[in-house]
Amino acid sequence: MPSSERKKQRGWLLWGALIVALVACRPREAEVVLPTVVDLDTAATQAVLTREAPPPGFASVSFPRIDANLGDIPGWRSEFSLAFNGNFSRTSRSATALTEGVQRYNLLQNARRLTISFVNTLQTDADPVALEIVTLGEDPFLVRNGVCIRAEDEARLAAQLSAGAVLGGLQQAAAAPQRAIINGQQAWRYSFTHEDLVLPGVTFGDDSRVTGLAGELWVAPALNAVVRYYLNLDVENVGLFESSLPVTGTLLLRYDLYREETPPNISVPFGC
Question: Considering the entire predicted model, what is its pTM?
Fold first, then answer.
């Protein structure tokens, strides 16, 4: 091989060796790990759920009677009402009803007082009624429209009345991501549907239906009790308070519970 060719070949070999050396000495590129893609809406929702979650055991609640679990509270007061505004179904005749009540309780006395009034146009012979019902230990007392009723059986029957007997409650409700101070108590809000409702005064037939619902339920875990229950329920063709004809309209329920640091003094009603 001519010397010129050998020189050219030796030059190419030198260049090849240099390139291989440079490639071998080049530092490796760091491995890039891509972060997990986060759904911002989902992350925000989970953060709220975690931050606002109720205490253990209160992810869901059941209060078929809205005034349940109050017997161990030293003193409390509850205010409640049930109102209906509408018509007798398929007529222009108005149908209204209103029940309002206040309950008070003293654990030390083992005493309860309920004042409650009823007014409705669902029955033509239904006159307005105002009751005061006091239970002292095992002894019931009843005052109707200002007159003390001496019949013990009637007084014991009336003593079964309460906010829960009038309003009913909820079979099931699930915690919503919201808490607040309601009526002086740390409370959590719960959501529900019309299928969860317990409505002792309402009868549903084959052609009855719920056309609208709005409401709120607040539970105080420290008391294991409902401190607020509001419900607006639009209904069609339902029986209400044993009315002879079905009615269509809006049912409004209101309930608030207040713990009283100084338990109320409850005594025998005047005139009894």
Answer: 0.81
